[in-house]
Amino acid sequence: MPGSNATGLLLALLTALFWGALPLALKHLLSSVDAISIVCLRFWVAAAWTWGLSCRYPGNSTPLGRREKLLLVLAAAGLSCNFVFFNSSVAYLSASACQILAQAGPVLLLLGSVFVLREPFLPIQGSSVIILLVGLLLFFNTRLLELASGDMLIGMALGIMAAVVWAGYGIAQKILLRTISPGRIMRFIYLAGALALTPLSSPSAFLELDPLQMGCLLFACINTIIAYGAFSTAMNNWHAAKVSAVVTTTPLFTLGLEALGSLVLPQVFPLEHLGLLSLLGAVVVVLGAMGIALGPMLHLPHKRS
Questions:
Q1: Can you tell me the distance from the alpha carbon of 92 to that of 42, in angstroms, rounded to the nearest whole number?
Q2: 3-state class (DSSP) for residue 198
Q3: Position 265 in a domain
Q4: Where is the EamA domain (predicted)?
Q5: Domain hosting residue 196, numbered range
Q6: Who's near 67: CB < 8 A, 6+ residues apart?
Q7: Using CA atoms, how far apart are residues 59 and 153, in angstroms rounded to an integer?
Q8: 34-48 pLDDT tens trace
């Protein structure tokens, strides 16, 4: 379609912008509400939206087999745990550190796809994994000695766990997408996650939020709908690898928004002072994640002589 490249690029950038801003909103919320309650509400809002769309635009409702049902449960558990672990890590780490650590997810998804789905492991992707790991070391260079402290260690452990379960969700979804539409998968995941987390949540805590925190909560809820909606639409308008590569710039959006927030409301969004090596590490992490996403597109097979 004419203009599809521009549409795909803008939607991918919108996704990166919303995902980049999310941990800043969560950081301000977590001082008053626990992570499980926030995730539970976000899932209920997303479930209401996706099920509402399904009533207006009904899709294929072919009965699912036992294997598909099991994979749906695994995918729902993976994404629910990812949301809880990531939201919890924001309480212990800076917003930018959480986003940088989250880039371990694509690495784990790549490795899982190789070993579980038998997908090819391209040399350019192997190099990109090394680049990403080097970037992580550079970004956390001044904080490696702080790992012995409780908060830093807990935050990084939660961030790594979030990346691990996200990779599990991604592998399950890859298999499901062979036979089930994305909308049907997400409808089940959001509803199942909301039902599972409801008994563990404390919705009364929302009544104690101030106006700014209520705004952050509203943003966190609509973030799921807008970001994932923009991401899905971008995939339909542009090459999947290009969309994924643009979305890997999310940590850079977080760094920029963190700096902007500290200028407007320094008491609410304090700026984390990063050294030159840490900033360089952030860029290197993004480049590594881009290489992983674009690997299949950039890979040039050897010609037979």
A1: 21
A2: helix
A3: no
A4: 7-140, 154-292
A5: 5-121+149-238
A6: none
A7: 45
A8: 999 999 999 999 999
Q: What is the pLDDT of residues 130-153, one digit of tens each?
A: 999 999 888 887 666 666 567 788
Torsion angle of C-alpha atoms 9, 87, 165, 140, degrees rounded to 10: 80
Pull the structure tokens for residue 132: 């990403």
What's the CA gap between 125 and 123, in Å, rounded? Answer: 5
Total structural domains in the chain? 1
> Is 129 part of any domain?
no
pTM of the model: 0.87
DSSP state of 207: G
What would the two tokens of residue 285 be?
Answer: 């992490």
- Do 254 and 24 form a contact (C-beta atoms < 8 A)? yes
In a domain, 28, yes or no: yes
Q: How far apart are CA 193 and CA 43, in angstroms?
A: 7
Phi, psi of 53 (to 5 degrees): -65, -35
Quickly count: other Cβ atoms within 10 Å of residue 304's Cβ: 4
Task: Specify whether the CB–CB gap between 87 and 41 falls below 8 A.
Answer: no
- What's the rounded mean pLDDT across residues 241-249? 85
Tell me the C-alpha distance between 135 and 158, whole Å: 19
Contact 86, 159 (CB under 8 A): yes
The alpha-helical segments, DSSP class H, found in the chain are 4-29, 35-56, 66-89, 95-102, 104-116, 123-139, 150-176, 182-197, 211-237, 240-247, 250-264, 276-298
Polymer length of the chain: 305
Query: Is the residue at 135 inside a domain?
Result: no
In angstroms, the CA 270 to CA 249 distance is 22
Q: Please name which of 85, 74, 77, 83 lies closest in space to residue 42, comparing C-alpha atoms.
A: 83
Indicate the residue type of 171: I
**Helix 104-116 crosses helix 150-176 at what angle (to 10 degrees)?**
40
